[in-house]
Amino acid sequence: MAAAAYAEHRPDYAEAAVRWALAPAPGRRVLDLGAGTGKLTATLVALGVDVVAVEPDPAMVTELRRALPGVRALTGSAEAIPLPDGSVDAVLAGNAMHWFDLAVAGPEIARVLAPGGVLAGLWNLMDDDVEWVAGLARVAGSAAVGPRDTPAAWRAATAGLHLPKTGATARFGSPEQAEFSHGQRRTADSLVATIATRAGMLVMPEPERAATLGRIGAFLAETPATAHGVFTLPMRTGVLRVRRR
Fold it and tell me: What is the pLDDT of residue 7?
């Protein structure tokens, strides 16, 4: 059920952000790592690159294969990638890189990358420079809208994600960050459903989860920009791009 909701409600990624992430890569072979149901994969397909998707959750892989039957989709993780050495030119991770254990995943990602390869994490951010979005973030709380979910905080929250948290050797360097305008067409109900798929909400005790979603729904119903029909949720796609050492 969570995989189906993720596939229906999670946003895609700004095409300009994906192009920027791939720009320094030495070739067109791309691994979408932690691919989920294929939101980033679909953008890569649209750009015409040679993409393979790897995702640890079998239910997510099933949804990805259903949505993108022409894409090679494998079960695996950042710490155990089922691909040969040097087989891709770039590894991209959409809203997933913060889950990786870089002490283990760093050498594994470096193993599958060709010389000069790129690792990039992408995060879809709710643009809290817009007044009603900032209000939504306050009402929703940190479990629904966390430090990697808004432009005000994502750079600091992601700046060192390419580095292992232990004393292990860093396999990536030359970090760069950039943001790109994005948006998602939503209704109040579908935005509540989108927020319900966030990790902090999925692990929340059910009474607290229901109360939080109720507050969010009430806020959207009372806000002129979101109370009537379809609207665009103002977003940005943030990218952290690093190079294989």
Answer: 65
- Listed in sequence order, the residues at least 6 apart from 111 whose beta carbon sits closer than 8 Å to its beta carbon are 81, 85, 86
For residue range 67-104, what is the model confidence (pLDDT) as tens digits? Answer: 999 999 999 999 999 999 999 999 999 999 999 999 99
Residue 149: which of 235, 241, 35, 232 has the closest Cα? 235
Cα dihedral 211, 217, 221, 223 in deg (nearest 10): 90
pTM (whole model) above 0.90 = yes
81 vs 179: CA distance, rounded Å: 28
Which 3 state secondary structure label does DSSP give 32?
A: strand
**Which residues partner with 51 through β-bridges?**
30
Residue 147: DSSP 8-state: T
Pairing mode of beta strands 29-33, 88-94: parallel
DSSP annotation of 27: S
